[in-house]
Design brief:
The structure is a single chain. The chain has helices at about 5-15, 55-65, 75, 80-85, 105-110, 135-145, 145-150, 175-180, 190-195, 205-215, 240-250, 270-280, 280-285, 290, 330-365, 370-390, 395-400, 400-430, 445-450, 455-465, 470-480, and strands at about 225, 230, 255, 265, 295, 305. By secondary structure, it is mainly α. Strands 1-2 form a two-stranded antiparallel sheet. A two-stranded antiparallel ribbon has the order 3-4. Strand 5 (about 295) and strand 6 form a beta hairpin.
């Protein structure tokens, strides 16, 4: 990294309120990523409403994803996460996912994307839109990857306006689609490249694998690579938690430096496709579509694919009952118990990580050196990566409970390593009494303990939503990307 880039990285980190310290891993060496040029032959109609009359049942069920209205804050449910993500935007605001209908709305509203009042303002890159809309593959086709990535998130505000929908999974401009055929397609080139790395080339896969791979458009682990901040899947070594960790360690990638412990951290996204592949359902060819988008019969007798993408228990006879002979109540109890078991271990790991971060802080304050802290910080990185891999996914307690328990178990091992290493460092600097942890019983307490001015961020976001977002929608309507206001 040359001096200018290093200075720029430090300036950006300071502006975002991140800690800048020598990390415990190698300097980031980005792997060169392919960059697809514009593809004028790839036609994508991103407006979902244009297919309402042609596919009324599918459209109606998709629109029903709007019924998932609850905005449950993980930060309020579990204030430990404010500490675990200290120095990273997730610590400010992280909600449980709602229906696809809200994909664009929720990424606009979340504090994580900041409050950019101009198209050039930060803090987030264009890549933050990547999973939210069929406008994304449309823009990549029009501009090429170099023309899409490399810009700010705010610069895409008037272009990325249609929530996850038809053109994310179907070739909506094809003859097959016009004739009522599925016409399945992945139009994001970086997804196609990633699938090839794990020998799942989309074009030559069978229909079962293709249907599952569609969900890999978004429900995967990824990071933003290089100066372009290009969406990239860390699958070069495989899709297990260890394989992806090795990938990140080998290139020295760091999502952020922890504001409390100064550990070089990784932030998992939502590795649902990976855990599904490793679990019993994936190994037996039961796909995401089978459970979350079953074929159902309308009142007129027509069979169609339900696009509401809901809880499999809501359509039990069309989903679980196709394979399981237990009653719905019995199966729900089994799932509930597995979820509780995983949650119990997950919270135990969170407690260990919170303690490790504050113990590392005490060690730095006692005068510990970078060399003395290196192994402990690496252990914190690896422990929290395993926690986040398990916590960030959706439905892992159903998809692969055995995988998650093993991941969390190895996370506890690494957290124990970190705390043992820190005890030795602290003792070397004369501290032998237990470190007293601050009160983090509420998110307000946790934000205070980690130096976050949450009210300042909330006021800025409110102003952004009041002044900037309406202008984005106005411009989108003028371009024909949204239907005219009634």
């Amino acid at each position: 990294m040359n001096a200018f880039k290093k200075s720029l990285l430090i300036a950006i980190s300071v502006a975002l309120g991140l800690s800048v310290v020598p990390s415990a891993i190698a300097e980031y060496k980005p792997i060169a990523q392919p960059v697809e040029p514009a593809n004028p032959n790839l036609k994508i109609e991103s407006r979902n409403d244009l297919f309402k009359s042609q596919f009324p049942k599918q459209y109606e069920s998709w629109a029903n994803t709007a019924q998932s209205t609850d905005l449950d804050s993980v930060n309020y449910e579990d204030p430990r996460v404010v500490v675990l993500w200290a120095g990273y935007a997730f610590a400010k605001d992280y909600n449980k996912p709602r229906g696809h209908f809200y994909a664009v709305t929720d990424v606009r509203n979340i504090l994580r994307t900041g409050s950019p009042m101009t198209p050039d303002a930060g803090p987030m890159p264009m890549a933050c839109w990547a999973c939210k809309s069929p406008d994304v593959p449309r823009l990549i086709a029009e501009r090429g990857e170099a023309g899409y990535f490399g810009a700010t998130w705010a610069s895409g505000g008037a272009e990325v306006v249609n929530p996850i929908g038809c053109a994310d999974c179907h070739d909506t401009t094809s003859k097959d689609f016009a004739e009522g055929k599925p016409a399945l397609r992945i139009a994001r080139p970086y997804v196609l490249r990633a699938l090839e790395k794990i020998d799942h080339k989309f074009e030559t896969s069978d229909k079962t694998d293709q249907r599952a791979a569609l969900c890999a458009n978004c429900h995967v682990e990824y990071y933003f690579a290089g100066d372009l901040k290009q969406v990239t899947f860390p699958w070069d070594n495989g899709v297990t938690v260890d394989a992806m960790e090795k990938y990140y360690d080998d290139i020295g990638f760091v999502d952020w430096t922890h504001a409390v412990s100064k550990a070089p951290m990784l932030k998992a996204q939502h590795p649902d496709y990976e855990t599904w592949m490793l679990g019993v359902h994936g190994k037996n060819g039961v796909t995401c579509i089978d459970c979350h988008m079953p074929k159902v019969q309308a009142a007129d007798g027509r069979v169609y694919t339900d696009h509401q993408i809901g809880n499999p228990f809501n359509a039990f006879e069309h989903t679980c009952a196709n394979c399981h002979d237990q009653s719905k109540e019995k199966l729900k109890e089994i799932v509930k118990s597995r979820k509780a078991e995983i949650k119990d271990v997950m919270l135990r790991l969170e407690d260990q990580l919170v303690a490790a971060h504050f113990e590392a802080k005490a060690a730095w304050e006692a005068g510990a050196t970078k060399e003395e802290m290196k192994d402990a910080l690496q252990s914190i990185r690896h422990a929290q990566w395993r926690w986040d891999y398990s916590a960030a996914g959706h439905g892992g307690h159903i998809h692969a409970p055995d995988v998650l328990l093993k991941v969390l178990g190895t996370g506890l091992d690494r957290a124990a390593d970190a705390r043992t290493q820190l005890v030795r460092v602290l003792a070397k600097h004369g501290i032998t009494e237990p470190i007293v942890l601050p009160n983090i019983s509420t998110p307000e307490d946790a934000w205070k303990a980690t130096g976050v001015d949450i009210e300042k961020d909330r006021k800025a976001k409110a102003e952004f939503l009041k002044t900037v977002v309406p202008q984005w929608d106005k411009e989108a309507r003028e371009k024909g990307l949204l239907p005219a206001e009634k």
